[in-house]
Amino acid sequence: MGTKENGPKWVEMPSVSNRPIGGLEVGESYHDLGMKYPDAPIPRVRGDVIVHRAILEDIGGISQLIDWVADGDIVVVEMTDIMSRDMELRLAVGKIQDFIEGDICGQMIRLGNSRLLLLPPTFESTSAQ
Questions:
Q1: Which of 17, 25, 61, 77 has the fewest Cβ atoms nearer than 10 Å?
Q2: 3-state secondary structure of 107
Q3: Cβ distance 62 to 95 under 8 Å?
Q4: Is 56 contained in some domain?
């Protein structure tokens, strides 16, 4: 065995090293990669899935949610901000449900009091018995 090295081993990556954002700090226990690399070039291959998390603040965000699910991705939507506006909430949920369940035969599942799970038709939920 060789000598022990102290601390993490840092690897220089040409694709990341010249970017001003995304630096990793020694001692960080959590790395929010969405904040560090908001436009990361993620190659898509057949059969892969991305799980998006989103906060729906108003009905203007519905189109992005629909686009993600249409691409075959899973979406977890936090709806706390829109829940106090009953009419807007009903409209948003109705539009999302019409598209997910009606147009593409996916599934919309309620998670707790303020979240929805949007599944494309390539995924199924089953009941555990």
A1: 25
A2: strand
A3: yes
A4: yes
Contact by Cβ (8 Å): 81, 56: yes
The whole-angstrom distance between residue 120's C-alpha and the CA centroid of its chain comes to 13
Total domains present in the chain:
1
Whether the full predicted model's pTM is greater than 0.70, yes or no, is no
Residue among 112, 116, 111 nearest 92 (CA): 116
Q: Chain centroid to CA 36: how far?
A: 15
Q: Which residues of the chain have pLDDT under 70?
A: 1-34, 42, 124-129
Token pair listed for 88:
């807007």
In a domain, 68, yes or no: yes
- Looking at residue 99, what is its pLDDT? 94
Alpha-carbon torsion (31, 116, 90, 97), positive or negative: positive
Place of tokens 């992005």: 64
Tell me how far apart the alpha carbons of residues 123 and 121 are, in angstroms, rounded to a whole number: 5
Please name the residue that has the structure tokens 């998670």.
Answer: 111
Asked, for residue 60, whether it belongs to a domain, the answer is yes
